[in-house]
Amino acid sequence: MMIILISQTTLMLVYMRSWVVLILVLGSFLFVISETDTVNIGAILNFKTINGKVSTIAMKTAVDDVNSDPSILPGRRLSLSFHDANFSGFLSIVGALRYMEIDTVAVIGPQSSVMAHVLSHLANELHVPFLSFTALDPSLSPLQYPYFIQTSPNDLYQMTAIAEMVTYFGYREVTAIFTDDDQFRNSISTLGDLLSTRRCKISYKAALTPDSSLSPQNLTNKLLKVRALESRVIIVNTYSKTGLSVFETAKRLGMMKKGYVWIATTWLSTVLDSTGISGNETLFLHGVLTVRPHTPDTEKKREFVMRWKGLSNGSIGLNPYGLYAYDTVWMIAYAVDKFLNEGGSISFSNDSRLKVVKGLNFGALSFFDGGKRVRAKLLETNMTGLTGPFWFNPDQSLVHPSFDVINIVGNQGRVVGYWSNHSGLTVRAPEPLYAKPSNRSSLNQRLGTIIWPGNTKDKPRGWEFSNNGRPLRIGVPLRVSFKKFVTQVNGSHDIHGFSIDVFIAAIKLIPYPVPYVFIKFGDGYKNPSYSDLVHNVASNVFDAAVGDIAIVTNRTKTVDFTQPYIESGLVVVVPVKKLNSSAWAFMRPFTPLMWAVTGFFFIVVGAVVWILEHRLNDEFRGPPKRQLVTILWFTLSTMFFSHRENTVSTLGRMVLFIWLFVVLIINSSYTASLTSILTVQQLSSSIRGIESLITTNERIGFQVGSFAENYLKEELNIPQSRLVALGSPEEYAEKLRAGIVAAIVDERPYIDLFLSYRCQFQIVGQEFTKSGWGFAFPKESPLAIDMSTAILTLSENGELQKIHDRWLKRETCASQDSNSDSDSDQLQLESFWGLFLIFGIACSIALLLYFGMMLWEFGKHHSDSDTPEESQKTGSGSGSRSVRLQRFLSFADEKEEVSKSKLKRKRERSTVNGTEVDSRNRSNRIQAEIDDEQNVNS
C-alpha cells in the first residue's frame, strides 16, 4: 500500500514538473514574440509649440500608415510614444533616459538644438539614433555626433538663402536680432561667415534672453539700440512667440515704416502656415520677408493636405515641418525593415560601465546592439516622401535643400521666388532646374516684385543716419596756402573752395537728405596734417572728411574713400632759364658741321642728277650758263619738293627718290628741333626727375601736412636731413631762387596752380605716383558708395569740369618739360650720317654704271672710224690722249639720239658696193661729220 502511494505521488510530481517546464517554455516563447513583434520608437517634443502640435499629429498618422502597410515590417508593429519636454532641458533628458530603459530603436527629437547638443552624447554612448527635423543648428556636426541625424535642411542652407537675398538687394550691413541659445546663436554666427564672403557683414547683434526671462522692457531697450544704428536691414531669428513680440514692439517704436527691411527666418512662415496672421498682426508684419522650406507640389502631398483637416480637426494648419515629421517616421520604418530583412535582430544589452556612476544606478539603460547598422540603413534611405526626394549626401545632409521666399502682404504670404543650392534665387520652382547645369551667376539671380514696409515697391536704401538725425560732422582742413582748394571766407564761418564745391554738388545728387555741418581742422597758422584728419574719421571724431585729401595706401586701411574727383600724383619742380631770342635762332637746330655736310650733299645731288640726265633729258641741256642755273635751281627746289625738271633715266629717278627721302627726314627733324628750341625753357640744373634727384645730396622741399614727406622717407629712403618743410607757394619760389632747395616735391594740382603764374620754374620728369583726391568716410560707410556715384555723375554731365575751371583754370606759362641743355637740342651729324652714307653710295653706284655704259657706247661709236692715217694725223702720246678725251667729252655732251644717228650713217658709208672708200672721201666725210657736230652744238 505504501509502495503504491509513493508511486502515485512520484508520478504526480513528475507530471506537475512537466507542466511547469512547459509553462515556462511557452512563457518564454510568448515573451520573445511580444518583445520582437513591436518596434519601439520615441519622440521628445514641446507639445505647446506650433511644431510640437503639428508634428504630433503627423507622426501619429505616419505610424498608422506604416502599420497598415503589409509591405513594411511584416508581422511587426511600429509603436511610437511621446514625451513632452515642456520647454525644459531637464525634462528632455529625463525623457531620453526613459526611452533608453524600454529598448527604443530610435528617438525623434529633441525639438531644440539646445538639447540636441546634450542628448547627442547619450545617443553616441548607447548607439540609439536620434532624428530631428527642427533642431537644425549647423554646428551639430555628424563627425562629432554621428548618431544625431537632421531630417530637414539645416540652418546652414537657410542662412545661405538669407545671405544671398541680402547680396541680391545690394545691402552691405545687417543687424541680427536672435535668441541667445544654441538654437539660434550658431545660426547667426554662420550667417555672419556667409555674409563676409560676400563683402557684407553683421554690424550689430542684438541677443535676446529666452522666452521665459524676456521682459517687454528688455525687448524695448534692445530695439531702441537697433533703431539708433545706421543699418535698416534687420534679420530676426528666434522663436515664434518672441518673434511676434519683436515685430509688435518695432511697430510701436516706428520701425515698421518706409526705409526698413525686415527678414524673418522660418519661424514666421511656420506661424503663417499653421495659425495664420490675425488682423492685429497684419499691422506690424506687412512687408516682411521670410523663408519656408520648399516641398514640391506632388500628388502624394496634395492627398495628405486634403486629409489634414480631418486629422487635425481643424485645430491647426499643416506646415513643412509636419511633412518632414511624417517622412521621418517612414524613414525609420524603412531602415528597420531593411535591417531585419538582412538578418539583423533587435536586441539590447547592458553596459557594465553604466551600472554604478558615483552612486547613481544607470544599470537599466540599454545599449542597442544593432544601432550601428540601423544608423547606416537610415543614411542609406532613398525614398520619395511628402517632401519629395528623400536621401542624404555624403556629409549627412539632405539632397536638394531649397526654400520659398515669401513676402507678407496683409494677412497673406506671397511667394516671390525660390532659393536652392543648385540655382540660387529664381522665380521658377527648383525642380525643373535640377535637370540643368548649376548656374549661380549674379546675372541669373532674380526675385519677383516685393511690397516693403511702408507699403512701397521701391527698394529701401537699407540704412539711415544714426543718432536720430544728428547732422554729419564733416572735418575740413583749414589751409593757409593754396586756398583755392579749401578756404574760409574772411569775416564769416563760410567755407568755400574747389573741394568744397565738389562735395556740395555731389551731396545734392544723392536722392535723400543728408544733414551735415563743416568742422574746421587746423590751427590756421600752418597746414594741418592730413593723416591726422583721416585718423579722426577712423576714430569717429568726424563722420567724414572733405578736402584735398590724397588717396594713399596707409589711409585706405583705416577709412573708405569715394571715387577720386581729381587726379593727382607727386612731381618734381626745379628752376629753369629761358634762352635769349636771337635773329639767328633758326640756325640752332643744326651744328655747323651738319649745315656744311647738308649743303655739300645738295650740290652733289645736283651734279649727279645732271650727269645722269644730260644725254637723255632736254631740260638738262643747253649752254653751260643755263645748265649751271638748272643744276642749282633743281638742287635747291628739292628742299621743298617743288622741282619742275623731270627725270627720265632710271638711275636718275633712283637717286632722286633716295634724296627726297633724305630731305624729308632732314626737314622734319629741323622743324621739330626749331620748334623745341623756340618754345621750350631750358633747365638750370642737372635734375631731370625723381631718379636723378635721389642720387644727389641736394635738399628737397615739400609742403607741410602733405603725405610727400612720409613717401620720400619711407618709400624712397631719403634721409630727413635732406627734407625741408615749406608752407606756401611764396616760400617755394624763395627757396628755389636762393638755392636752399634744389627741387620741390608736391602733388600735381598744387604745382599746376603754383606754375600758373611763376614761369621761371618747371616740372621735370614724370609723375612718380598715381593717385587722386577723394572724400574720406568710415569703413563700410554706405554714404561713401552713394557719394562715389554722385561724383561719377558730375564727371559725366560736365559739372565737375565746370567747377574745376571756375577755381583752377588760369593762363599757364608756355613751358614744357625739358631734359637737356641747349646744345643737346641741336641736331648732330651723327644722327644723319647713315642717311648721307646711303645716299652717297647710291650716287656712286649710279655714276659708275653711267660712265661704264658711256665708255662702252663711246668705244662702239669710234672703233670703226679710227684708221692708221687718222692716228698718224693726230699723233701719239699725250696729244693723242688729249684728243680722245676731248672726243669723249664731246660724245658725253652729245644727245643720245644724235650719237645713234651718226653711228648709223658711219656704218652705211663705210662700205660702197662691197669696196673700201678712198682716203680722200673718208677725209671729206670726217670733215662733214665735224661740221654736223658743230651745227648741233650751236
UniProtKB/TrEMBL annotation:
UniProt GO cellular component terms: membrane
InterPro entries assigned to the protein according to its UniProt record, in alphabetical order: ANF_lig-bd_rcpt, GABAb_receptor_plant_PBP1, Glu/Gly-bd, Ionotropic_Glu_rcpt, Iontro_rcpt_C, Iontropic_Glu_rcpt_pln, Peripla_BP_I
Domain Ionotropic glutamate receptor C-terminal: 473-810
Regions of compositional bias (Polar residues) in chain numbering: 873-882
Name under which the protein is recorded: Glutamate receptor
Family indicated by similarity: Belongs to the glutamate-gated ion channel (TC 1.A.10.1) family.
Gene3D superfamilies per record: 1.10.287.70, 3.40.50.2300, Periplasmic binding protein-like II
UniProt KW keywords: Disulfide bond, Glycoprotein, Ion channel, Ion transport, Ligand-gated ion channel, Membrane, Receptor, Signal, Transmembrane, Transmembrane helix, Transport
Membrane topology: Multi-pass membrane protein
Its job: Glutamate-gated receptor that probably acts as non-selective cation channel.
Comp. bias intervals (Acidic residues): 929-938
Start and end residues of each stretch annotated as Disordered: 862-882, 894-938
Disulfide links within the chain: C759-C813
Keyword Ion transport: yes
Database matches in PANTHER family: IONOTROPIC GLUTAMATE RECEPTOR (PTHR18966)
The organism's place on the tree of life at top rank: Eukaryota
Transmembrane segments: 593-612, 624-642, 654-678, 832-856
Subcellular compartments: Membrane
GO biological process: one example: response to wounding
Organism (species): Lactuca virosa
GO molecular function, one term: ligand-gated monoatomic ion channel activity
